[in-house]
Automatic annotation (TrEMBL):
Compositional bias per record (Basic and acidic residues), positions renumbered to this chain: 206-215
Keyword Membrane belongs to the record: yes
Originating organism: Phialemonium thermophilum
Keywords, sorted A to Z: Membrane, Transmembrane, Transmembrane helix
Region of interest (Disordered), ranges: 195-215
Membrane topology: Multi-pass membrane protein
Signal peptide: none
A Pfam family that the UniProt record links to this protein: EI24
Compartment list: Membrane
Membrane spanning residue stretches: 6-30, 102-122
Protein name per Swiss-Prot or TrEMBL: Outer spore wall protein RRT8
Highest taxon above the source species: Eukaryota
Amino acid sequence: MFFFTYVPQLAVLVFVNGPLAVLTTVLLILNESSTIVSVLSRNLVLHDALLDVFDGTLVARGRAELVGQGRQLKSGGDPIQRLGRVLRSPFERFSPKAIIRYVMYLPLNFIPVVGTAIFILLQGRGRGRIVHDRYFQLKNWSTTQKEEWLARHAGAYTGFGTVATLLEMVPLASFFFSFTNTVGAALWAADLEANGPDSASTTAPELREAAKKAE
C-alpha cells in the first residue's frame, strides 16, 4: 500500500494539510490497509476463529449457559475444546454498509489536522457498534433493544472501537490485535453478565493492557 499509494495521496493531501500531510498520509494509508485486511480476514480467513475465541472466552469466564444459546457445547474442561457446532452465527461475511460509510468518510481527510482524527474516531464508532453483536444475539435481544443499549452507552463503545481500530492499524500486527480485541469484547460481555448494565461504562482490562503494550 505504501509503495503504490503513498506518493499519489501525499500529493493530494499536501494541498490541504501542508507539511503535516507527511503524517496524515501515513495514518490514512494505515487505516486503509487495516480496513482491507479486516474485511478480507473477517470474511474469508478469521471468521470462524474469531467466533470461537469470543465464545471460548465467555465459556472460560463461566458463561457456558449463555454460549449454549448459540452453539452446541461438549463436556470437558478446556473452553475451546468444549465448543461444538455453531447454531447461529452473528458475524456478517460481507457488510456493504461498512464499505459505503468508509468511502463517505474519506473526504474528511481533506480537513487539515482534525479531519484525520475525526475520520479515525468515526471508524472507531462504527467498529464499536459491532463488537458485541454475538453477545446481543446470545441474549436474544431485538434490534430495538440493541439500538437502545448502544445509544445509552455510545461513549463506551466508541472508546472501545477507537482503541481497537488504532491497534489494528499497527502494521504486521493487525491479525494479532483482531484476536486480542475479540477477547477484550468477550471479557467485557462477561463483566456485563456478572455486574449488570452499569459495567458497560468500563473497558475490558485486557484491551487496555494491549493498548499500553502497543504504545
